[in-house]
Each structure stands twice: as C-alpha cells, then as structure tokens.
Write a structure and sequence with these properties.
Elements lengths: L32 E6 L4 E6 L5 E3 L32 E3 L8 E6 L11 E5 L5 E3 L2
Antiparallel strand pairs: 1-2, 2-3, 4-5, 5-6, 6-7
Length: 131
C-alpha cells in the first residue's frame, strides 16, 4: 500500500502544495513514514522506522500550524449578557422600544482599534457600538 501522490488530490480546491500535508506510508511494510534529513545531499526524506525504505519528499513542508486570529470585537456576546447584574447599565433607547442597556468596553486589543463601547439592549439583545 503506497501513499497517495499529490496528483491524486488535484481535483480538490487546495492549489497551494503547502496546505496539502499528507500522511505518507511505506510501500514495503505499510507503516507510517517519518521526516528525515539527508545531511549529505541536504534533502528532506521520508523514512520508515521498521524497514530501510526511504523516499524523497515532494515538499519541504512537514507540518503546518494555522492560527485563526479573526475574532471579532464582540466575540462571545450573547443576548444573555444583558441579564448580567455585574455590568453597568445606562438609559439608551433601542429600536425595540426598550430604554435600558448594559455596556462594556471592547476586549479586542490591537493598535488600530481605539476604545469602543458596546451596548446590549436589555429587551432584545441587539448589540450596538460607539465607533
């Protein structure tokens, strides 16, 4: 049983070969291949730890760790936050007719984000901000 080649996955939408991190398997004994450096020829190889099988890696990328950092300023805010008795309250008219809202400061800390206050209506849970 050999590893699938990159050509087997061409029908998928991933065009960047670095996003295609595949597990490789030995064609002799079907065990998992592990990355190994060939220091003489300065190449990346995949080698079997059970038998002596090795193959040259198609890409130099062994592992890819993507960190999603697109969290919004009001991440985690739900309508229940309006029922939190520890948050300060203000008289602010909402389109639903309610006159009370709780407010809090943005938890997003970036250089381009100034201080923004977010208001949550106590009646409908609608979130509005001052920015």
């Amino acid at each position: 049983m050999s590893s699938p080649s990159a050509a087997d996955y061409e029908s998928k939408d991933t065009t960047d070969p670095n996003k295609q991190i595949l597990f490789r398997f030995c064609s002799v004994c079907s065990n998992l291949l592990f990355p190994k450096e060939d220091k003489v020829e300065n190449k990346l190889l995949f080698a079997c730890r059970t038998c002596a099988f090795t193959e040259e890696a198609a890409s130099s990328c062994v592992m890819r760790h993507e960190i999603a950092s697109t969290v919004g300023a009001t991440a985690g805010v739900t309508a229940e936050v309006a029922q939190d008795p520890t948050l300060p309250r203000i008289q602010k008219q909402c389109s639903c007719g309610e006159n009370e809202a709780v407010f809090f400061q943005s938890q997003q800390r970036t250089a381009d984000t100034g201080m923004a206050l977010y208001y949550v209506c106590c009646g409908c849970g609608k979130v509005t901000n001052t920015s």
